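Pilot study result, target chain (451 residues):
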Amino acid sequence: MLLIYNILLHLSLIMLLPFYLVKAKRTGVDIRYWFGFIPPELHTGSNVRKTIWIHAVSVGEVNAVKPLIKKIRESNPSLRIILSTVTGTGQTVARQSVPEVDQFIFFPSDLIWNLRRLFKYINPQLLILVETELWPNLISLCASRSIPIMLINGRISPRSFMRYKKVRWFFQPLLNKMTLFLMQSETEVDRIRTIGAPHHKIKITGNIKFDISIPELTDLEKQRYRAMFGFEPSQPVWLVGSTHPGEEKLILQVYKAIRATQPELRLILVPRHPHRAEEVGKEIELLGLPYVRRSQLPPECATDRVNKAFTKALSPILSNPDSPVRVKNSHSIILVDTVGELTKLYALADVVFIGGSLVPIGGHNVLEPATLGKPILFGPYMHNFEFCAELLLSAGGGIQVNNIQDLESQLSALLEQPELRRQLGEKARSAVIANQGATERTFEEIKKYLN
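Predicted structure:
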């Protein structure tokens, strides 16, 4: 079975290589890792320190695993931690925000000869896969070397579940080789068991994304951001995060329609992939709306470092609630084409919409804005985050819309009713708090293998 898989894997890589080369250049992925490139920092230390390899796909998984990595580091200061990602944005966020990691790499593809070469330098004593990363050659190679393999925060979307079921005969032997499956919920347990995971290796530990710690911006920081963006204190802000192709056009149509009755409304639009900013900008221009790209704002506004001179000059104005802050170049839309700032920008929002849900992508993480107590809207396609979406709906902390007409109606109602926004946000925050603790439970299981 592995022989057939490897033949098909090599054939598909050859056939799709031009596509992947273009995509890698556009998204910032270092494609050299696919062909056995070993960064210089991995050439030393492989046999000196105990090593664990943690694999997280993209930004969401990286953010989710940060508190867990911090716990691992605090309990094992001498441990060597390697973190891999698939996407360029995930790699950027990881390098910027996870100081406990010793080395960062792109996932080296599942080519067996490539993995064998990498293992000479990594030599891991434990492999941790975040959510659902079931790579046949990686699993087989670890099993042949008696390296424990843990799946943490495990989940399988309904769509993936149907695909896995069709090839259960292939995945069951692979899942038997894995050490432990720490799943998010009973539903995920049923799915992983159905496709072949042994019952005695499965545990429910919950969703570690509920434990994400998001630092709140101070009032001065919020006012400073609004001033930099050209938003006056009285203007409501609608933040739309992690949008996909075809979705921005729908969002912009809703925004333009609501602006007819609420001209003060401002929009922060955050495409899931920053490299798409140019095409999204063209969509905005077609509607004749003024906008600015995030990267075009002053550099001190695009980083975490606060420019002291700027802050000193604005402090008397920003600290006085009766002093309106007016910026010379005011724009109704901020198009975010930078990486790693979305969680911070949630703090500016009066209402949040989660992208990837108006088009059949499957949605994105609703827990970050919920943690900040923001009222949250999302579309009909939330199958990748069905548990979180259902939790918010049942708690009264989120609203699901069926189409853009429904979105326009619900958004208008929220903008007109501050108390409704507050109630929705508080219920969302309470739902998150009630489901925390998965990081600690996951760490307790990992500790057994670290020792």
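One observation from the pilot: The two ends are 35 Å apart (CA to CA). A full batch analysis is planned for the follow-on phase.
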